[in-house]
Amino acid sequence: MNPAQLELGSVLADEAIARCAEHNKLFVSCAFTAICARSAQPGPFTSDDIWPHVYDDPLVEPRAMGAAFREASSRGFIRATGRFVRSKRAACHRRPVMQWIGAFNSPVGTGDSDEART
Question: Which helix (H) or strand (E) holds 66?
Fold first, then answer.
């Protein structure tokens, strides 16, 4: 792929996420709240950990969860660990999902903890 194709792909992804968020505002808001609450706890987490804390509505586009994670990340509540783990949700067929951590929590063993800085 050339840079123009990559840029177009990024623009199209951003537009799709924005449309999904717009049509699922209540769900995105609930998921965002659950993500922020989980981000205050130690340790990494995935969307699998958030799904049980949001309402179950068959009319909600499941990809709206991505919009909530994007919002939490862009607002500085969470950051990606760079690791992908297999989803435990049957609907995901064990596909890889991003692992996240609260922005104010550091993964063990990275040297980023307060103890490592003192």
Answer: helix 64-74
